[in-house]
Every structure is written in structure tokens, then in C-alpha cells.
């Protein structure tokens, strides 16, 4: 599971086998990969074209211009949505890292009556689809005045069974001796968790953080339901409403889509290894 | 506390110190769990029961909810649109899951052996996974437009092939919506498949080579069986994803959500419209119960398949 580097035998086998088949496979893989990013390339390309050039389907714009970006970002709506999405995704991620870890740790390292029951109860919520809860959540939000508020968008995701389960798996791998040693030193249980146990599961924390952030950054269904005022839209809901308004001005629609895509792509390019490893970790353990 | 004026008040930590280590730890555990227990009870379990209850009422936001028994379910099962939606939802699942898994397995299988530009090629496949479906729905929608706007029809025209209506056709719209959904999920599936492939110990392959097995036999007798847990996970994960498809459909068909003629409408979009366009909350709740049941069956099937082989 942790063996991400190829073994020497595998490498040796590879260098022996540089056959035409390998080269064809490699070329096909590369072409497939380029096809995968074609929609993204077209999106960026069109966002740099004027409305008159949209019909020109060449990938490289004849006269690239940032006018669309100036126009789309000009009225500040996208800035607001961008801020909303970032704030919400960061807050929910912080909450998940804190609570999912705390609960996962408690379930992994404490022995008490009801532990198994709590574990099963939390695990069973994985079976409940969000779509089933949105109507009661909507009712709850309207009763407590949470519609059109950050809290209204965030509250359903503040803790997740997926994250708790993932963290529990990893905390089970932390040796009890370390925790006992800290207890002998007189640290309280909260400090032991935060200062001793948490640093030992950093890869799991980053996997959880990546998944939670991405999930909330791209979330559409619940934010669409709970927000009606444009100032509180998240970026995906904003892009959707903006595009519907822009109707046939495809260069503006592509610019909006690009603005929503660029931040995650930059983060990915910076943290590629980290993210891929995190996805593998979460996928295999979760 | 107020009566303890004769003897000095026992300090709180004195009381705490008298507890056994075991008791202290139990208290710590429940302190840690206190807020989460409230959260799961209020934000997960209570709403679940409420959804079941609402599905038995005619609640419409205006009047208080009235119990109407199984009326919503009768209405739903008699509604031809529900069956159309039900069929669409399963079409997304039945086409989407095998197609996406087959493609991602083949790519992962070959990509795993690639050393030259491995990280770059992997990134190409992974990037779409990081995009927002709301944004990509519009990009693909533009791709599907008729000439002179749409890219795909432009390419077809350039190759001398007939133009296609894509999203405007009752027959092609569902597939046209499904393609971006598959496209966006491939990266994740490839990464997971590659992680699964690397978890297979090399000794198995070495032993197989010593026994003189060919590539195809190794694939069939070693790789695929040992990859089963990964495959089952991905089948369930992507099945649930396709059964819950919404973002792509909503964004690609905004002027007639789920159209043309309900040909792309999945269950979640029907739920959304019933609840938040028509405000028939009780009826929508009944539809969510159906979705819940379908997802539950899929999850239980996963448990069953995994248990049998262990």
C-alpha cells in the first residue's frame, strides 16, 4: 500500500522490454491524456477570445485578450463568490480535521462502554444520502434563520463519517506506548491527542483535508438550495447562474468557468504528489 | 455546595484526582464525543427519520403537514414521469459504471508501467477530477452546440461526417450528459486502480513468470483477482455517483432541466424540482426514500460480495 516506487526487478523488466508495443501504448496514453485536457484547453482558449472569434475553433487564439476577465471580474460578483467558496471550504475543512480526528482517535484509542455502538451509529450515516436530508435541513434552516448564511451552507458538512472512519483507521496504527509515555509524563488526554498522536498521522490528515476541501469547493446541490441571494452564492452556484444569464455569450461563460477552475489547477500543480498520494490513501483506507 | 460551609470545599481537581485512571479516561472519551454525538443526532439521524415521516405527509410549506399514509408513494408509482426518471437513473448507472471502470482500468494498467513522463501523463488524466461540475457542464454544453459554435460538430463537419443534435435530441441527450460525468471521474478511478495495482506484491508476478505464464494469463489469474477489493470499492463508489448524478444534468439543461422531454432527468433532479420548484415537500421526501433504498441495496451488495470471498 505504501510501495509507490517501482521495485528494482520491475525496472529491470521494463528496460529489457522496450518493444514496439510499449512505445505504441505510451503514445496512445499520451494522446488519451491530451484528449482528457482538451475541454480545459478550449475553455482557456475561448476565455481569451473576443465574441467575434468564438466561432474560430482554433485552439490558439489569433489575438489573445484578457478583456473577458476584466469584464467578468469587473463587477466584483466573482470575487465575492470566490471569497465565499474559499472561506466555506477552509472552515469546513478545519472543522473536519479537528472533529473527525478527535472522534476517530477516541474510537481507536479509548475503551469504554458504548464505543462500538457510537462507531456503528456514525458509520451507518454513510448509508444516508445527502439528498434525503436536504428537505429536513432546509426546514431546519428556515426555522432557525440559516437560509442565506455561511453557517447554513456549512453546517451539514462540519463532521463526516468518512473522515472519522479514515482517521480511526490511521490512529489504530499509532503505538499505545507513545501515548502511555506521555500519560506518565502527566500530559492530559487532550494534549496527548493534539501534541503526540496528531503529528503521527499527518499523511492521513492531509488526505482528509484535500478531500474535504475539494468536496466543499465543488459542492453544488446544497449551496444551490440554501442560498437565494447572490452575495452568498458559492463559486459553482455563481458560475451556474452567471452562465444561464450570459446565455449565448460563450466567451464570457468560458471565462467564468476558467475562473472557477484555475485555483484548483494551481493548487494541484503545486501539490501534485501530495494530492495524488492523499487520494490513494483515502481511497484505499476509506 | 452551599451546605459545605463547615468543612473546606473540596477543590474540583481533588475530586478529579480521586477517580481511577479508567474512570478518568471514560470521562475524557465522552467529553471528546459530546459535541459530535449531538451533531450526528441532530444533523444526521433526526433528519433521516424526519424524511421518512415527511414522505407520509402532504406537506407543501404552506399548510401544516398532514398524514396521508402511502399516498405519495401511490402517486409516484402511478406517475409515468417517475418511471422515465427511474429508467434514466439506471441508464446513467448501467452505462456509466462499466464504461468508466473499463477505461480507467486499461489506462491505469498501462500507465503503471510507464516511466517516461509518468507524472505528466498521470496529471493529464487527473486534472478533470479537480474541476467543478457546474463549470464543466457549461464547457461541454458549448462543445455540443450546433455549428458554427459547437466544437464537436465543427470537428464532425471537418471530417465530413453528418452533424449531430447531441443535447437537443431525445436519443442522444442522456449519453451527451453522461460523457462529461465519466470524463470528470476517470482521474480518480485511475489513481485508485494504480494504488491497487501497486499493492499487489511483486513476488506474485515473479512466481508467475517463473511458472512461464504469459502477460494475458498473469492479468487474468493474478492481477484481476488480487485487485478485487479495489474494483469492488470503485464499482460501488462510481455506482453511487451515477445514481446521484445532478450537477452535470442541471447545468447542461438549464432552460429545460432534465429535458428534452425528461430524457436526461435523473432522480435527484426530480427530487430537486418537486421540493424546490413545486414545493411538494412530502412528495419529494417520498422520492428521496426511494433513492435511499436504491443506494442501500447497492451498499449491501458490496458488503455481500466482499464477505463471500474473504
From TrEMBL, chain A:
The keyword Transmembrane applies. SUPFAM superfamilies: MetI-like. The chain crosses the membrane at residues 23-44, 81-105, 117-138, 150-171, 252-271. Keywords: Cell membrane, Membrane, Transmembrane, Transmembrane helix, Transport. Pfam families: BPD_transp_1. It is found in: Cell membrane. GO terms for cellular component: plasma membrane. Gene3D superfamilies: MetI-like. The keyword Lipid biosynthesis does not apply. GO terms for biological process: transmembrane transport. Residues 82-271 form the ABC transmembrane type-1 domain. It is a multi-pass membrane protein. Belongs to the binding-protein-dependent transport system permease family. PANTHER family: ABC TRANSPORTER PERMEASE PROTEIN MG189-RELATED, ABC TRANSPORTER PERMEASE PROTEIN MG189-RELATED-RELATED. This is Carbohydrate ABC transporter permease. It comes from Devosia oryzisoli.
From TrEMBL, chain B:
The keyword GTP-binding does not apply. Keywords: Cell membrane, Membrane, Transmembrane, Transmembrane helix, Transport. InterPro entries: ABC_transporter_permease, MetI-like, MetI-like_sf. The keyword Transport applies. Residues 86-302 form the ABC transmembrane type-1 domain. SUPFAM superfamilies: MetI-like. Pfam families: BPD_transp_1. GO terms for biological process: transmembrane transport. Belongs to the binding-protein-dependent transport system permease family. This is Sugar ABC transporter permease. It comes from Devosia oryzisoli.
Amino acid at each position: 500500500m505504501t510501495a509507490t516506487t517501482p521495485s528494482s526487478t520491475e525496472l529491470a523488466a521494463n528496460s529489457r522490454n522496450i518493444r514496439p508495443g510499449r512505445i505504441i501504448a505510451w503514445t496512445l496514453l499520451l494522446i488519451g491524456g491530451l484528449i482528457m485536457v482538451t475541454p480545459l484547453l478550449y475553455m482557456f482558449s475561448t476565455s481569451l477570445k473576443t465574441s467575434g472569434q468564438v466561432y474560430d475553433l482554433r485552439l490558439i487564439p489569433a489575438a489573445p485578450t484578457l478583456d473577458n476577465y476584466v469584464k467578468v471580474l469587473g463587477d466584483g460578483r466573482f470575487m465575492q463568490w470566490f471569497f465565499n467558496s474559499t472561506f466555506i471550504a477552509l472552515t469546513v475543512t478545519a472543522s473536519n480535521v479537528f472533529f473527525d480526528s478527535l472522534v476517530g482517535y477516541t474510537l481507536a484509542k479509548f475503551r469504554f462502554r458504548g464505543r462500538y455502538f457510537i462507531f456503528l451509529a456514525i458509520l451507518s450515516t454513510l448509508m444516508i444520502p445527502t439528498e434525503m436530508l436536504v428537505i429536513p435541513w432546509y426546514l431546519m434552516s428556515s426555522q432557525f434563520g440559516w437560509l442565506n448564511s455561511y453557517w447554513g451552507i456549512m453546517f451539514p458538512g462540519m463532521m463526516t463519517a468518512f473522515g472519522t472512519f479514515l482517521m480511526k483507521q490511521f490512529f489504530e496504527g499509532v503505538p499505545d506506548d507513545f501515548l502511555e509515555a506521555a500519560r506518565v509524563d502527566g500530559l492530559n488526554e487532550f494534549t496527548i491527542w493534539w501534541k503526540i498522536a496528531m503529528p503521527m498521522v499527518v499523511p492521513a490528515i492531509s488526505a482528509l483535508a484535500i478531500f474535504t476541501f475539494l468536496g466543499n469547493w465543488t459542492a453544488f446541490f446544497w449551496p444551490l438550495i440554501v442560498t437565494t441571494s447572490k452575495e452568498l452564492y458559492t463559486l459553482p452556484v455563481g458560475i451556474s447562474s452567471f452562465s444561464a444569464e450570459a446565455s449565448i455569450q460563450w466567451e464570457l461563460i468560458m471565462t467564468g468557468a476558467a475562473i472557477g477552475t484555475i485555483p484548483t489547477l494551481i493548487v494541484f500543480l503545486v501539490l501534485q504528489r501530495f494530492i495524488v498520494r492523499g487520494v490513494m490513501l483515502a481511497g484505499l483506507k476509506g | 455546595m452551599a451546605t459545605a460551609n463547615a468543612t473546606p470545599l473540596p477543590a474540583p481537581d481533588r475530586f478529579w484526582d480521586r477517580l481511577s485512571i479508567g474512570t478518568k479516561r471514560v470521562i475524557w472519551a465522552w467529553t471528546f464525543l459530546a459535541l459530535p454525538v449531538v451533531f450526528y443526532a441532530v444533523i444526521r439521524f433526526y433528519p433521516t427519520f424526519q424524511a421518512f415521516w415527511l414522505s407520509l405527509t402532504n406537506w407543501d410549506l404552506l399548510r401544516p403537514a398532514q398524514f396521508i399514509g402511502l399516498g405519495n408513494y401511490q402517486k409516484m408509482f402511478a406517475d409515468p414521469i417517475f418511471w422515465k426518471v427511474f429508467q434514466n437513473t439506471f441508464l446513467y448507472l448501467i452505462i456509466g459504471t462499466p464504461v468508466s471502470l473499463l477505461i480507467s482500468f486499461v489506462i491505469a494498467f498501462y500507465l503503471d508501467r510507464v516511466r517516461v513522463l509518468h507524472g505528466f501523463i498521470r496529471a493529464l488524466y487527473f486534472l478533470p477530477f479537480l474541476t467543478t461540475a457546474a463549470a464543466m457542464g457549461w464547457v461541454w454544453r458549448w462543445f455540443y452546440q450546433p455549428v458554427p459554435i459547437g466544437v464537436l460538430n465543427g470537428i464532425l463537419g471537418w471530417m465530413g461526417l453528418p452533424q449531430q443534435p447531441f443535447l437537443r435530441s431525445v436519443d442522444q441527450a442522456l449519453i451527451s450528459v453522461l460523457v462529461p460525468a465519466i470524463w470528470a471521474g476517470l482521474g480518480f478511478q485511475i489513481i485508485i486502480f494504480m494504488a491497487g495495482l501497486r499493492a499487489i506484491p511483486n513476488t506474485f508476478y515473479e512466481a508467475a513468470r517463473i511458472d512461464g505464464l504469459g502477460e494475458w494469463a498473469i492479468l487474468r489469474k493474478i492481477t484481476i483477482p488480487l485487485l478485487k477489493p479495489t474494483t469492488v470499492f470503485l464499482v460501488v463508489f462510481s455506482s453511487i455517483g451515477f445514481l446521484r448524478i445532478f450537477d452535470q444534468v442541471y447545468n447542461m439543461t438549464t432552460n429545460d432541466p432534465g429535458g428534452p422531454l425528461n430524457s436526461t432527468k435523473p432522480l435527484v433532479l426530480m427530487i430537486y424540482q418537486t421540493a424546490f420548484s413545486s414545493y411538494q415537500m412530502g412528495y419529494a421526501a417520498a422520492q428521496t426514500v426511494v433513492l435511499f433504498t436504491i443506494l442501500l441495496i447497492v451498499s449491501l451488495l458490496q458488503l455481500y460480495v466482499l464477505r463471500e470471498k474473504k
